[in-house]
Design a protein that fits this description.
0% strand
Length: 149
């Protein structure tokens, strides 16, 4: 498939979706932690679902697709959490790769997120939240730029 055709398909998909709702831009780490505790982790999965959904819309046309929550949960269970680490890594890389499309530049990429999530466990789990915060912040920025187009 040629780049022009991919761009046209992505633009059509974006226009179809955008008629309904703009992408979410108000994700916060505090809400992620607080509501995750109250809902026993269900809200955390919802946030990751919205990241996946919004990322697939905002970054359509790059030839990649971020897997949804079914894959995240099932493969995460089957691989004892290794797939989830890969998911964080690939989302961080996809955000960094698509930032220039919107005139943005993220100093963090998938490796940064992965290192915070992995080694953050040694910091009483606090580092993992820093990795999640990077994903939330960068996803909000991409979605905001997408909504302004």
């Amino acid at each position: 498939m040629e780049n022009k055709e991919l761009y046209q398909r992505a633009n059509t998909y974006r226009q179809t979706y955008f008629k309904h709702d703009p992408l979410t831009t108000n994700r916060s780490l505090l809400a992620y932690i607080f509501l995750g505790l109250i809902t026993l982790g269900i809200y955390d999965y919802y946030v990751l679902y919205t990241i996946s959904r919004d990322l697939n819309i905002a970054c359509s046309g790059d030839g990649k697709e971020t897997p949804g929550m079914v894959e995240f949960i099932v493969f995460g269970l089957l691989t004892c959490g290794i797939y989830q680490l890969y998911w964080y890594y690939s989302v961080g890389n996809r955000l960094a790769a698509n930032a220039p499309r919107y005139g943005l530049q993220f100093p963090e990429n998938g490796t940064t997120v992965l290192l915070w999530v992995l080694f953050g466990a040694f910091l009483c789990g606090i580092g993992s939240f820093i990795g999640i915060d990077i994903l939330l912040k960068n996803t909000n920025a991409i979605c905001d730029a997408y909504n302004r187009q």
